[in-house]
Amino acid sequence: MAKTATRPMQAQGAKAQAQAPVDPENACPIAPVVDIVFSRWTTPILWTLHAHGRQRFVELERRIGTITPKVLTQRLRQLERDGLVVRTYHPEVPPRVEYEISELGLSLAPLFATLGDWAADNLPKVERAREAYDAG
Fold it and tell me: pTM for the full model?
């Protein structure tokens, strides 16, 4: 069962305030961004395309390493649909398809840089907190 955030409704007379469900996207306005950008495999795909430029499917698969072809295909299609990746089909024999990060995808670079800085500064603290929690 999904959890829902609540907000007070205006009280009418002496009645106590009731709680009405709030749409999670309204409760946290960045939730849709988190769903798009941080779903499984999206970050490694975007990171790889940003770091290495335009690539064929096999190159991308090889650089990511642990992703299956099926999952890579699904994620690339979703990223193309979301406008974060551009797919270029070359009608040659054999056909050639290349993927690259779009301008919209590149606009995420400052976000990833900030998260990279946060990770460098704070992941050791997170690990220490986990160890302390697990020990206690």
Answer: 0.72
